[in-house]
Design goal:
Length: 204
């Protein structure tokens, strides 16, 4: 498969969560789509069996790729990953999220509806009712933010966040000084603000 055949790259960064990656990996393997895609599973300097878990999954499903990033921090991991990704759309989610089987199809449809968007975010539902409803987003109607508009923190969440590749290239991607694992866990807020410059950002 050549680079220009990839439609969607899904990026999931993780650190020392080997024991709980199974559900997330299973949801990747359950994707049902005719679109070409890949998933980059990024081991961010883990000291447990994360590398072995991801490598074993990649052997079972050729869509999955293992990537090691030794600089600790979600910003550094995400920034390294999109540069290795081959998709024209790069989608970021978290290592404790489970993707719906039609996730890729719905993502491609959203970008077809908003082809000029720089950034598109999506719904994040609470899987376990006993968990705290933090960063949950259950909006069912699109909100379109004008280019260069002020976006308050939380307008779009890093657990369901997609970019056109050329937007990441134009803005420089993610700041490796930011994100979980650093003093400033806000790499998604920073990237969204940059991605909305001169473009429209949509939340679906």
């Amino acid at each position: 498969m050549t680079d220009d055949q990839i439609t969607v790259s899904i990026v999931i960064c993780t650190r020392n969560r080997a024991h709980s990656l199974g559900g997330t990996i299973d949801s990747l393997m359950a994707q049902s789509t005719k679109h070409s895609w890949e998933a980059l599973l990024v081991d961010n300097a883990s000291t447990d069996a994360t590398a072995e878990v991801i490598s074993a999954a990649a052997q079972r499903d050729p869509h999955l790729r293992y990537l090691s990033v030794t600089r600790i921090g979600l910003g550094a991991a995400r920034d390294a990953a999109w540069r290795q990704a081959r998709g024209r759309i790069t989608a970021f989610t978290d290592d404790d999220c489970y993707l719906e089987p039609d996730y890729i199809d719905r993502l491609v449809e959203a970008w077809a509806d908003y082809p000029d968007a720089g950034v598109i975010g999506g719904r994040i539902r609470l899987h376990d009712p006993d968990d705290a409803a933090i960063t949950i987003d259950e909006r069912n109607l699109a909100e379109v933010y004008p280019a260069r508009a002020f976006l308050k923190a939380g307008a779009l969440h890093g657990a369901n966040l997609t970019f056109r590749r050329e937007v990441l290239e134009a803005t420089g991607g993610f700041d490796p000084e930011l994100g979980a694992g650093t003093q400033f866990p806000c790499e998604d807020i920073d990237a969204v603000a940059a991605g909305g410059l001169g473009r429209v950002s949509g939340a679906l």
